[in-house]
Amino acid sequence: MSNEFGTSFFRRAALLTLGLHGLLLLRPGAPAVLAQSKPASPREALQAYNQNDPYEKLFLHLDRSLYVGGDVLWFKAYAVEGTRQRPLPLSKVAYVEVLDAAQKPVLQGKIGLKDAAGHGSLQLPASLPTGSYTVRAYTSLMKNFGPDGYFHAPITIINTFAAAARPAADSAAGYDVQFFPEGGNLVAGLTSRVAVKVTDKTGRGVAAEGVWLDRQGQVAARFSTLKYGMGHFDVQPSAAGAPYTAVTRLPGEQTATRQAPVVREQGYVMRVEAPGADKLLVTVTTPGDAPEEVQLLGHARQRIFAAKTATLSGGRTQFVLERASLPEGVLHFTVFNARQQPVCERLVFRRPAAQLAVQPQLDNNRYGPREKVTLTLSTADGAGRPAPADVSVAVYRLDKLPAAPAADIASSLWLTSELRGVVEDPAYYLRLPDSQTEEATDNLMLTQGWRRFAWDKVLAGTGAPAQYLPELNGPFVEARVVHKTTGQPLGGVAAFATVPGTRVRLYNAMSRPDGRVRFELREVYGPQKLVLQADARQDSTARLQLLSPFAAQFAERPVPAVPLLPEQYREALTQRHVEVQSQAAYFGRKLRPFALPLTDSVSFYGKADENYYLDDYTRFGVMEEVMREYVPGVQVRLHKQEHSFLVSDKPNRRLFTENPLVIFDGVPMFNIDRVLKIDPLKVRRLEVMTNLYIHGPLTYSGVVSYTSYKGDLGGVAVGAGALVEDYEGLQWEREFYSPNYTLPEQKASRLLDLRNLLYWNPAVTTTAAGRKLEFFTSDEPGQYQVVVQGLSGTGLAGSSSVTFDVRPQGLAQGK
């Protein structure tokens, strides 16, 4: 409970996933980077790196993608290991944030994960301005590899109390035109494929066309964009040096002029083609005729699937791969020269052959107000066999308001989590392939490449970063011990953290040379007070500074557009406004309840050797009298005007010679004179450990623990050097409220039911026989959508949706 670096025991599933090297990497006291000898080849280097690189992903199923101020945002978190996309029961905490357009967090929360899943909610303040926001989520372990690998999903929030700001008019400066040579290089005399991507200031692809002009102003190549503002063309640079000039015609008869990528005199050009359905051809060319050995390394999600060597003949060589032998998902191909330097890189996407087939079936397609809906769910694998899965279900009303596209679990795990930046309509790339989809997918791979590591570090044998460890039991609290005057970090200082309460919990750590300490909190939920302090007996000048557990780095993403809300949306906006306000007015009390989790009530030191409930004894008005009269295991001594406690060391039949650990509601008190000034009438229980107690890196000469009636320190102030902070623990689980209209008197209730979100269930487990769910419609007519997302234990991900209508009474017939 108190170990500075957290527990060293992994769940069996995590051990199988990470292997021995992963365990060594994450052991207590592990260095920030696990060093290793320099590998002999790129393949060996990547294998060694992958063994030390636990790969974790998160996906969040959001109940909707459009909200109004005052709504509750509900979500389900799925944690998977990135290699096989299977549930990964490793991290026990997920960090969820809502970011505004400037990437500033407006809401943050810590969500508990159990068995690779968790769920929570965020109440959206009514004061949030209308705009496009981003929900992002990550674990502590994921922070090692940067924000590009976090889960991101766009949402729209509308403030129905205020008018939306009008966006600025488009201009050529608001468009981004980028060119990406295949493999990374343009080399004089060699034909290269070049991808182009044109987006507006919100990151959405736009239709455009243009030309590349050489230094004489002659057209060297023409291009045009296809799906989502992406396209490609071929060009053969004639000379190295000054780049081409790219002139692009944009919407609205605007023109953008950019410099094209630089042309090199020497280098390598890579080309990937699929001459047939069963082959993949990788061609490498370079100027000159000198023979040279080059290597092709293919890897995907920590697995190496190709490692081939060939010799350039006449400046050219080819690698042929069988497509059936390639793994699914985003594949990375890297070419190395004879000096084992990476010289070209390219991404290829192979669609997963099988996804989780989610089949939601309704008992009807039309319902009346307050009528029961029966939904039957079944899940199957690619062959149609039943595949039990963990799924989440949302049922909400469709309206005309402009909503951001919802994220789906399959495209997130297979595609967007492997790429950098925003991918428009990622589900499009997982649909049944045709020539247009294949070309669009290849353009995407050419323009949005990214990997979780840098080749120079891999080849040098540096190892995977491990600054942030997985939170295996609860959230870490990190702080820095510094000198109170100079602010310089202090190493080797004992530090303590506690959340005062009747449940006595204490965490300790020794500060590292940089002053950092880490405490692993367990079973801490909701808003609390956190007390951090150094051992004043060891160093009275030491102070603690609390560090935020939320990531301070943000992925580069375009500024989303402010939603346009013309007059045509007035009726829909008014309706959403009334829905939220009526919910708060009529069902406010039922929307607020949280399910309090069961927690261990035993103190951190276990069962005490001596236990006193002071109400069972004659009450004294002075604590010193209580200790002398009722507590034989503790002797009170006075020496040089200072009191001390000497606890009996019963196993050795002697007295300890040093003060014990003395705590009040879990907060250490290092001055015994202050302890004796505690009002005994505020103390309910007194416990004593009459033996040597080892607690993490520290050893105590016994423990004396006082507990107040309310866990509030009985009005006693903490020590002068202590830091008291408001602390938000793991989120309490908010209960989703859905009325029951089974009985006639319930259905006849006069309370207006204008729920927009009819049903939310984040914890549904399907079986071979399927799963039946029931809920009731509201008084709000319209079309409703059922969205189901899920993940099987074998890593199959899938989603599906179905719609139904709710009609006013008397019009819901003819089902």
Which keywords apply here?
single chain, 5-stranded mixed β-sheet, 815 residues, 51 strands, mainly beta, Ferric Hydroxamate Uptake Protein, Chain A, domain 1
Q: Look at the structure and give the mean pLDDT.
A: 89
CATH fold-level assignment of the domain at 610-728 = Ferric Hydroxamate Uptake Protein, Chain A, domain 1
Q: CA-to-CA gap between the ends?
A: 59 Å
Q: Kindly report the spatial arrangement of strands forming the biggest sheet.
A: 2-8-7-4-5
Number of DSSP E strands: 51
CATH architecture of the domain at 610-728: Beta Complex
Q: What is the top-level CATH class of the domain at 610-728?
A: Mainly Beta
Which regions are unreliable across 5 or more consecutive residues at pLDDT < 50? 1-35
* Rounded radius of gyration (Å): 32 Å
Main beta-sheet annotation: 5 strands, mixed
Note the total helix count.
9
Tell me, what's the shape? globular
What percent of the residues sit in helical stretches (DSSP H or I)? 10-25%
Estimate the strand proportion. 35-45%
